[in-house]
Every structure is written in structure tokens, then in C-alpha cells.
Amino acid sequence: MPDVTFTVDGKKLTAPAGTLLIDACRKAGIEIPAFCYYPGLSLQAACRMCVVRQEKVPKLQTACTTTVAEGQVFITDSDEIAQARKGTLQLLLGNHPLDCPVCDKGGECELQDMVFKYGAAESTYADAKNHREEQQWSPAVYYDRPRCIFCYRCVRVCGEGMDVFALAVQNRGSSAVIAPNEGTQLDCEQCGNCIDICPVGALTSGSYRYQTRPWEMNHVSTICTHCADGCKVTLGIRTTADGAEILRASNRDSSGINDDFLCAKGRFGFDFVASEQRLTKPLVRNAQGNLEPATWEQAFQAAASRLKAVRDEKGGNAIGVIGSNRTTNEENYLLQKLARTVLATNNIDHERTTDYPAFAQALAGTTGKTASLKDIATAPAILLIGGNPTEEHPLLANLLRTAVRLNKTRLYIANSGPIKLDRQARLTQLVPDGDFAKLPAFLEAGAADFAKAIAAEESLIVVFGQEFRGESAGKLVAWGLKRASVRFAYLGDHSNSRGAADMGLLPDLLPGYSPAPVPGKTLGQMLSSSLGALIVVGADPFTSHKFPSEASKKTFVVAIDLFLTPTAAAADVVFPAASLYEKSGTVTNTFGDVQLLRKAADRPGVKPEFEILVRLALALGADIKALVPIGVSGTTGDLGQSRGAQMGEADRHSVYIKGHNLEPRLSPFDPIALLDEIAQTVPGYSLDRINLLAGNSVTTEIGAGPGFVSVAALSGEIAPAHDTLFTSSALGRYSDGLNKIAQHQSPAQSTAAAD
Amino acid sequence: MTDQESISIFSPATAARFDALVLKYPLKRSALVPMLLYAQDEIGYLSDAVIAEIAQRIGITQLDVRSVASYYSMLRFKPAGRYNVQVCTNICCMLRGGYDILDRFKKELHIGHKETTADGTFSLEEVECIGACSWAPAIQVNYDFHDELKPDLVPGLIDAYRGKAAAKGAK
Amino acid sequence: MPRLVSHPDEVKIVSQRFGQGAANIDRYIELGGYQAVKKCIAQGPDWIIDEMKASGLRGRGGAGFPTGMKWSFVPKQSAKPKYVLVNGDESEPCTCKDHLIFLHDPHSIIEGTIIAGLAIGAKTGFIYLRGEYRYLIEIMERAVADAYQKGFLGKDIFGSGIEFQIITQTGAGAYEVGEESALMESLEGKRGVPRIKPPFPAVVGLYGGPTVINNAETIATVPHVITMGAAAFSAVGSARNGGTRLFSISGHVEKPGVYELPMGYNLKKIIYEVAGGIWKGRGLKAVVPGGSSTPCLLPDEIDIGMDFDQVAKAGSMMGSAGVCVIDDHTCMVEFAQRTIAFYQHESCGWCIPCREGTDWIKKTITRIHAGFGEAKDIDNVTTIGNNMLGRTFCPLGDAAAMPTLAFVKKFRKEFEDHLNGKPCPFAHKN
Ligand SMILES: Cc1cc2nc3c(=O)[nH]c(=O)nc-3n(C[C@H](O)[C@H](O)[C@H](O)COP(=O)(O)O)c2cc1C
Ligand code: SF4
Ligand code: FES
Predict the structure, then answer these.
(1) Which of A19, A303, A622, C297 could disulfide-link to A573, CB 3.0 to 4.6 Å?
(2) What is d(CA A719, CA A716) in angstroms, rounded to the nearest whole number?
(3) Average model confidence (pLDDT) for chain A?
């Protein structure tokens, strides 16, 4: 649309013709109040708060429905407008309960803010307000009917946004209410977006209600720990006597790739952090063979002395290291560096949920072929193959729906059965018997309508997941690479699965997928051989692999975890670790978007893995400056140590730091020090720091270095987590919030399955 | 469709009518409001089963059906009497004694607004304008209009409908 | 059966077949029916629209928009099908004229609908009747079936090769559905919540297609305009107000009923001559001139011609031409209360000012009438009314506010007489 010029309050503004006046004004910093208008959702013109005066038009106009055209003249700020808004607020307050002091929303309520601005607090009504009882719709969502102002945001976000349609208006006029789909119960995805979007306290959160006042919390934006999409989540933190607790997870800061979206896990699954079952003291196995609490120093000594002994007596090859899908990039990098340099072993792996190495190999030598989440939001066409994003990648599903709805993105789905996103799809293709390996040839042949439509797309993003591993992933990517403008996104399972692979928690690949000179043992191989010692960080191979095997019974096990998992329970030394919400660093989502974590909660007795690993290295007598490059100048962060080839290279680090205007880090416990190193050593991780530190997602590219060796045998060690909307592998077990929701939803699900 | 007919809670005639109704409009959903009204005529009110079947026939959610149904004042979610007496008390009727008619019905039937007689024969409702303003005061008994009423005509009307009910009941 | 009335001053055009058995298609034809549509088929769309424009016919649904002009707004070319929609929701209190057309002359509506369809190039017409009019829907459906039988509707109407279908529809109790866009929502099986405008129905209407929506009386008038000729029709009425109107006269008159009078006919004469004067020999207190949403007029304000422009000049509106006459034994607070109670009941609740405003005005006036009012309540009613006026999503808010403001302004003394625990001074009843 061509730009037009129009006047608002005497100021000349320019915007594309057809822009909504409210958007144009807000962009120009002219505040237009609104309850019902919400960017991206359908127009309502119901609240009448956005009224403005348009020249030559007899009635006040709603800025939320007026589109701008050349030469128009508007007044948005005058006595008349202020009176109109005040009048509407007065009407609204007539029936609205004035229980602000006990209302969850008090302090961040849009109605309060508007009354503050337009002043309509004095009531002239003598009659009783219409009262109705509050309803609990689910463990997650409560509805206080008298507080509802009928902006219809919840109805729209549930229907248009989530494609769930679990809310609707019922009755007419002043007896209208919002009603959930099962009478008084809400059967839905329990995302709670309706709570966040409610401008007042009509919809409140089961986990947050009556907990605190908003101004008594600190609001820390960090990255959700649950799935591999990496939503930004704002945690409401309250200081306690000995730390800081999380009271709420919300979208208060909607600046992330997820905008206003969070799923049930992101919103209600934070409570595992405060679980009674959290480990808060190091444990050491005593002479009687029982784990007993120990001081940190005792535990480090116990672990280090045995590790050292095994290394020195049997060689590094007798030590295994298993990393985590949920720890930070810096921790993962540090772990593999510690293993490869200090412990002298290449036996390093993690519980793989998808085959990132195969993806990296397939893309070797290319650039610009991966799609970030932001690309999904704006793509003209997307081919989704396999999986069910609604359950496993809720943010991706939301972005796909939004792209189809607002950008007219053409979505194609090839799958082994129907999924909910089919409703947004332009075309769907059944993949018989889930034989995804045949799909590239099918698309190549271009005979079927589906393949023809795909072939006609000039620019395409192909989203696929664990159905493709090893060779089949290679074939699919190869098919796409033959075409001009195809980009890929590969779906993994956990909040930093991608980071675990990128950072080289792999026996045969160093950070950035460059081949290890001598490949070590895979996770499976480690568990089935008789290692002298095993370090397990944030993983539970005893559950996933029925460990310990006969062979490994005598292995000395060091576990670092949040909970006493079966693995930790069988370990000899256990360190209590901090969760992702209790530390800083970076994580990489499955699309390669790197985001910054900010420490939100503080649980006494736990430490971030980063610190635990540094202290362990100290106890092992390692040169910390070599492990974590710190210091003002002349640091000798020998970057070659983990990269074989460049062993012995001089101080490239300080040159890099100076050259990039970065601040040298002083503490060995500062993960950013390692990020500085990662930026140099891991291809694609030379990140736009300013954006990263500002809390934006920064995209990295995956791609294998020269000499990449594919380990076909590894495919067998990939075990997708298949988490659903209300499960989050090990963490989910410790979230009461999620478990209650899952229980609430399960009767409805079983009846749905029956018909 | 055949499947649906076999489990329909409606009479064969009504079910057949509904089968035709969804084909009558450019959009299936246009059949919703009439279907709800005709279903109520047959079943007496919009029971959960009625909502469920109509939702299925139109291909929308039950919530959606409820949302629409609860908008229209003639539709009800609770049973009414066999003869639903709807007395208009809107201004034109009021001016010519609409409230007297309503009061007389209350007195004769011993029920109030939106109540039903114990035997289920009558229910009473005060309604908005029914489009008989020049012939006020007017009422509707189910869909039958009775206009230019006087309170003294009320007992006779009630008797007539009682008689009808008895005749139908005997059949 | 509603009683038919008659008065020598009546000019029976639209009502000429009332009481003649014209619901029967053969009888309708015998009385000259279905000739206009044939003429229209011969003359073509442009001619029809020119005739309608020249006739001065203005919409009978309330707003009085010139019908010919409305039809001319429909784009000639359209990717989506076009529709004609007949508004027979007739729910504005004081209005019962469409009732008689459906009852006595359903074919005139069918004929008018076809003509509208020809004019705009629509192949389908919908006739929507309020749910309470079940017996009239049955009459209408019978008439439509007969017209199909005769080949007046269908794929090839009157052997012209032109297709036109008519579909009847029932509402289920909702005044707001009479608003044109709410009517389209209802017809699409949704809640009767109006749509955002623009786009206007002539461009994006029913099922997204260009749609002409007219009141039932407007449509029933159309064949007569064609038959009489625009000039003759226009000559019957007053300036810029062509033809006649069906006036629904109700309230405290000796001879209430629906009378067809030329546009511009004097209101005082309507009350005192046509309708036989105030009943029981009483005096006149006020007149609601055009349905319950129009501001009332005082006895000294009624010496005016009843057409859209003259009533507007007198500070009210002609609206649906439902004239409700109020005698001097009536409590205006109670009348105001019953009026606002209706709008409170019928507000769809979509927008804040209407949903909350009608509720609070109702609560307040109810309390005043019950004798529990305070002095500030009266001003508060005015304040709320002014906060609704022109601010609501659709005109229902205005329809509720305008009469209320007039009642308070013109009968403030009666409101004051109810204050401070005083019982209603009119409680003695008639
Ligand atoms: C709240 C409201 C209720 C209305 N009810 C009716 C109605 O019952 N019948 C009607 O014909 N027009 C009604 N109208 C007017 C219609 O919106 C529309 O203007 C009319 O049907 C157009 O037809 P006309 O141009 O032939 O008058 C109503 C308008 C509003 C705002
Ligand atoms: S004015 Fe608002 S609430 Fe009232 S009927 Fe119109 S849209 Fe509904
Ligand atoms: S006021 Fe009673 S029918 Fe109109």
C-alpha cells in the first residue's frame, strides 16, 4: 500500500494507506486507549475507548476500525474525547467490583490505569452491582464473572490464536458471561494465554492467584526450560528469607520470539523449581554404602580424588562423561572441554533425542539454509513433515497458525496421520506407514498434487524432526538443496538439545561438529562397558538405559542434578544443581536461535553446573585459566586444547576480546567468559552480542566442518522424548502444576478417544 | 446421514426436516437458529442431547451452539409447560392493561414469570413486544396470538387450552 | 386475527389487498399481482433503479434511507453472489404493520423481492421474519411454494431465462437482529451482534456478497411503485417523501389500528380524526411518533406532517411510523421505565456504553418509580444517556438513550414528584 499523509492532533503522520488509525497513532507515540483492540486479533470495536474525532464526520469514530487515508484530520486529545472515555469508564465501573486491593491484577490492570488517567473513580450509582460467583474452570484458569469487561480478547486468543475455541460469550446484554466449553469446566490446551491477555482480573491463574501483589515481585525475563522452542518467559520473583522464589510465569515482557504466547508448560510448569524433592546438599556415599549429606568441599574432594586416580591409573579412556539437554551452552562447552582436556577422554555424549550431527553434515558447506523461528513467522510457504507440533512444539505450532492467519502463509503437511495443524494446512499428504524415507523421492517425482504444489513454491521452509536421522535426513536436505530457496528447521526435544550437540557433547565431534581426532565411546557404549568413572550431568541414563549393567556396577559415578533421579541415587557423589531458572548463560533452541538466560530464582544450597564444574576442575588441579579464559590481559586461554589441531597456539583470546571490544571476564564462574571462547571456536556462534544481551534471539547456523565423519551407528541411540503439552520428561514429574492440569484434562481426553 | 437418523433424538419427520434444512442455505450454519427453534418445539426445550445433536448436524462445537442459542430469548434451556403463555407488557400493551392481563394469569394459574404449573400444562412469561401493538393488549400462547384481551377473558382462554390439552392427552 | 380498520383519509396502496384473500396466489394475480415484476423483467435493472430513485420511496424500516439510492450502491460486478434480504424482524415496540402485510399480502413481498433482485443482479432473496411470527412464516412459506409452482420463482422466472430463488428464515426472539448487519449475522447462524461498518452490506453483506437489505413494507411497496409509475407514487407523498406509509396507531386512542396515509399527513389529525381521539374522553399527555426509540412529543408539538424530515425538525424521528398515544392519566416515569427495560433486555451486550448504560438507566428509573429515588438520580439518568448517545457500536444505544433523555427533559417534574419516598402519583391506575 502507498503511504498517505494525515493529521493527528496537529501532527502530520505518514503510514501505508489502510493502516488502522490506532496502530498508526501508537507507532507515532500517540496513546489511544483500548480494551478490545489487540494487535493481530480480529477487530471488535466493542469497548469504545478508542474514540477519536474525525474532521467532517458527525459521530466520534473508533480508532481501532478507522483506516487512514490521504488528508484525513483527527483529534485524539481534547475535552470531548476525554469526557467520552471517562463516560465509558464510569459505565464500566458501575458493575465492576472495586476489589482492587485483593485482585491479582491490581497494579497491572489496564482498567485501573485508564481510570487513573481519565479519572472516573467517583461513582454516581446508587444501585447494587450485578453479582455472580467466581468459577474455577480448571486447575489453571479461574473466571471472576463480575470483573469481566467483555473485551473478548480471551475468546479471540483461544479461538483465532490457539485454534482451540474453548471460550464463547453466553447470554445477552448485561447477563452475558464468558463460558468455557464444558459447562463450567475448561477442556483445552490450558495454555493460559487467556489469563495473560485479560486486561483486568477476570481471568486469573490457578498457580498465582492471591499469592502476592505484582509490585512486590521482580520481573525477570529468561528462557523457558521445557521444550526446544525456547519461549521467552517473564518470571515473577519474590525474595524469601534465604533466596528468591518464582511466583508466576507470564508474558509481561512480550519481546521474545514467542510474542504473547506461552504454553501450559511455560506458564505453569515452573514449580518444579520449588519442589520439596530438590537436592540442596551434596551427597557422598559413605563406608556403609549409603549416600549422606556432605559439605561441598568434601564432595569435591571425594569426586576429584577418585577421578584423578582412574585417569592416572587407567587413562582417560576409562572415564565417561554424559551431558545434559537442559544445561547452558557454556556449561556444555565447559563439560566437554573438562572431559577432553582435564580428564583426557573423548567418551562424551548426551541423551540424544534427534540427529543434529546428521543435519549438520547434510548442510555442510552451505550458508543461509537454516530457518530461525522468526523466519517461520514470515515465510510464504512451509512444509511440515511428521511430528505434532501442537503437542511437542507449542510455540512452533502457534507461529504456524499465526503465519497462516495473518500472513497467508501456505502450510503443507506430510504426516503419517492427522494432526491438529491440518486445519491450517493448504494441502496435506498422508505418508503411508510413516515411511518418511520415501518422501524426498515422492517430492522429487512431482507427480502428486501435493508434490506439484511444493514444486511450485519459490521460497519454502521445510520443518522436520526425528523421523529423519542419518542418511534419511541427508536425503531430505539434499532434495531441498537442489532447489533455489529452501531453508530447513530440524526439530529436537529439549530446551538445549541443540546446544548440547552444537557444543560437542558428542564422542566423535568437537564443538561445531568438527571431527574429534580420536572418537570416544557413545552413551550406549559407555554404559555397557566397565568404565572406571562416569560423570553424569543433568541426565538420567539409569532410567533410559536400564543402567547399571553388570559391566558397569563397579564404576564410580558422579552425578550433578536437580533431583535424586535413579542415576543420582546410584551415584557415589551427587552435586545439587541449579535449574535453568536459577542461572545465567545462553541456550540454543532447535532452530538455532541463541538466547540469553537471566538468573531469576535463587534456591539455597544449589549451584549452577558451571560453578560445580569449575570447582571440580580446581579440585582436580586443573589450570583454570586454561579452562575458562579470564583476566585483564595476557590470558592464556589455549583454545587449541579442545580442538586438537591448534594445540599450543598463543593467546588468541585476548586478541579476540580486544578486537571485538569485549570486556575481559574476571571470574572463572562467569559463563560469559566461555561464551567469548565459544564465539571463536564454534562456527556460527560468533553472535551479535548487542542483540543477545538485549534479550533478543540471535541466530546461529548449523553446519559441519571439514573432515566430518558420520557415525551411522549412532542413529540407534536417538530416543525422542515425545513430551506432550503437559509433560516435560524428568522435570515434568516434579511439577504439581502440570500434573494437576494433566489430570484435569485426562477424563476429557479419554472420552475424546472413545468416539 | 443414515447413521445420524438412527441415533436422532427427534421424530422421523423432524429429523427429515433437519436433513433438508442444512441443504437449504448457501451455508449449513444458517440452519442453526431455525433448527434450534424447531427442536424446542418438539422436545420442549434445548436439552443437552438437543444441543449435542444439532452441533453434530451443523458441524460446530456444542459451545458454539450454546453461545448462539443463549442469545435468542425464545430459546430456553429448561422445560416449559405444554402451553407457554407469553404476555406482552411492553409500552403499547401496558397502556391498555397488559399488566392486568399478566396479573390475572398469575392469579388464575398460581404461577409467576417463567414458572410452570404443577401439572406441566401451562407456563407463564412476561415478554417484550410481540408485534401486535395496535391490537393491545396481546399475548401469545405458544405461537397463537390473542389480542384485544381483557382480564375477564383470561379464565375462558385457560379453559380452552386445558380442554385442548385434555383432548390431546386422551389421544 | 388482528382487526382491520379503515378511514376515509386513507390512501390504500400497500394495503389495497388487505382483507381480499390475496395470500392466495390466484387471487393475488386476479387483483393485479405479478404484473410489476413482468414489466421490470422487460425494462431491465437500470430502469428499475431509476424508477425507484424517482419515486422518492424511503426505507420503511426506520432510518428512511432512499431505496433507489441504496440499490444503486450495489456494484454491478461481483465475484461473490449478491443477495436481497427482506427485514421482517419487526420488533420495535409500537410497530405491527409488517405483520399485516405478511398476513394479507405475502405475494407483494415476493414480487418486491424479485424486483429488487432484478435491479441489483441477485439470484437469491431471503425473507427473514421474527420467530414470534410463526403463523406468518407459514403463510409466507405457502406463498413462496405457490410462486415456485407457478414458475415465478426458480431457475427461469416467468420464462425469462432469469433465475431467482427465495428462502424464508425465522428468528428466535431478538430485537437487535432487526439491525441490518445483526440480521445478516443471525441469518448466518450466529449471535445477533452487528458487524463493523464499513464495509457496508451493499459491498460486503450476507455470506460476504453484496446485499440489499430492506424492510418488508419497503419491499411490499416496490411493485406498487412500478405499477403506478414513479411520478404518480411520488405525487402522493410530501416533498422528498414519496407515497404512503402504514401507521401503526396504538395506545390511548379510541380506534387503534394500522392505517395507510400519505407521507406528510398531519400527526394531530392522525390522533384526533383517523384514530378517533383520546380514549375515555381524556386529554393527551404525549405521543411517541415513530416507535419506542423515538423521542416523545408533547401535545403542542404534534401539529406536524408525518414524514422523515418534518418529524426530525420537531426534534424526534418518524422511525417505523408506530404512533403510540399516551393519555394524561399515565405515569411517564413508569412509561420511561418500561421503555428502557425493553432496551436493557434487548441490548446485545457487545459494547460497553449500551450494555452498561441500559442496565444502569433501567435500575435507576425502576428505583425512582418505586419511590426510592434521590435527586441526583435524575441528572444521572441524563448523564448516562448522554454517555451512550453516539458512542455505541450500533444505533440500539441511541434508540435507548434518545427516548430516555426526552422523557427526563420533558417530564422532569413527574420524575421529581416520585422522589423522597413519594409513591407514584399515578398509582391509582386507570
Ligand atoms: C436496533 C435496530 C433494530 C432494527 N429493527 C428493525 C426491524 O425490526 N425491521 C426493520 O425493517 N428494520 C429495522 N431496523 C433498521 C434496519 O437496520 C435497516 O435500516 C432497515 O431494515 C433497512 O430497510 P429500509 O431501508 O427499507 O428501511 C433496525 C435498526 C436497528 C438499529
Ligand atoms: S449498541 Fe452495542 S451492545 Fe447495544 S445492541 Fe448495539 S452493539 Fe449491542
Ligand atoms: S407493545 Fe405489546 S405487542 Fe407491541
Answers:
(1) A303
(2) 8
(3) 91
Please report where in the chains the cell 441528572 appears, as a residue: C379
Q: How far is B67 from chain A (nearest CA, A)?
A: 5
Chain B partners within 8 Å of C132 (Cβ):
74, 130-131, 140, 143
Sign of the dihedral through C-alpha C383, C389, C392, C394 = positive
Cβ contact A539:A350 at 8 Å: yes
To the nearest whole number, what is the mean pLDDT of chain C? 97
- Mark whether A606 and A575 lie in a shared domain: yes
Judged by CB atoms closer than 8 Å, whether chains meet at C349 and A94 is answered as no
**CB distance C95 to B131 below 8 Å:** yes
Strand partners, C124: C83, C165
Domain B11-71 has CATH 1.10.3470: no
pLDDT tens string A520-537: 999 999 988 889 999 999
The answer to whether B3 contacts chain A (CB < 8 Å) is no
- Give the pLDDT band (50/70/90) at residue A554: confident
Residue with cell 557423589: A573
Q: Is the peptide bond before A16 cis (omega within 30 degrees of 0)?
A: no
- Name the CA dihedral angle for C233, C237, C242, C246, rounded to a multiple of 10 degrees: -90
Model confidence at B1, in pLDDT bands (50, 70, 90)?
very low
The pLDDT tens digits of the residues spanning A486-502 come to 999 999 999 999 999 99
Length of chain A: 755
Phi, psi of A457 (to 5 degrees): -75, 125
Select the CATH number that applies to the domain covering C332-416 from these four: 1.10.1740.10, 3.30.565.10, 2.40.50.100, 1.20.1440.230. 1.20.1440.230
Average the pLDDT over C264-271 and give the result. Answer: 98
- CB pairs < 8 Å spanning B and C: 155
List the residue whose alpha carbon is closest to atom 6 of ligand 2. C394
For residue A287, the SS3 value is: coil
Rounded mean pLDDT, A370-377? 94
Q: Which of A510, A522, A514, A487 is nearest to A715 (CA)?
A: A522
How far does the centroid of ligand 3 lie from the alpha carbon of residue B27, in Å? Answer: 34
pLDDT in tens, C308-363: 999 999 999 999 999 999 999 999 999 999 999 999 999 999 999 999 999 999 99
Q: CB-CB: which of C196, C355, C391 is closest to A174?
A: C355
ipTM of this complex: 0.94
Q: How confident is the model at residue B8 (pLDDT cuts 50, 70, 90)?
A: very high
Has residue A714 been placed in a domain?
no
| Distance in angstroms (rounded) separating the CA atoms of residues A590 and A488 | 11
Long-range contacts of A439-444 (CB under 8 A, 24+ apart): A439/A385, A439/A414, A439/A476, A440/A475, A440/A476, A440/A478, A440/A479, A443/A479, A444/A479
The position carrying cell 423515538 is C294
Residues of chain B with CATH 3.40.30.10: 83-168
Residue owning grid cell 458512542: C391
| CB distance C117 to C209 below 8 Å | no
Contact A181 B62 (CB under 8 A): yes
Rounded to an integer, the average pLDDT of B14-43 is 97
Tell which of C80, C100, C130, C134 to mutate to test the B interface (max B CBs under 10 Å). C134
> Fold for domain C25-236?
Rossmann fold (3.40.50)
- Reference A51, options A20, A85, A28; nearest CA is A85
Q: Do the bridges between strand A585-588 and strand A593-597 make them parallel or antiparallel, or are there none, so unpaired?
A: antiparallel
Does the pLDDT of residue A713 top 50, yes or no? no
Residue B64's closest chain C neighbor by CA?
C190
Q: CA nearest C256: which of C327, C331, C336?
A: C327
Give the confidence band of A228 by pLDDT, cuts at 50, 70, 90: very high
Reported residue count of chain C is: 430
Average pLDDT estimate for B98-111 = 98
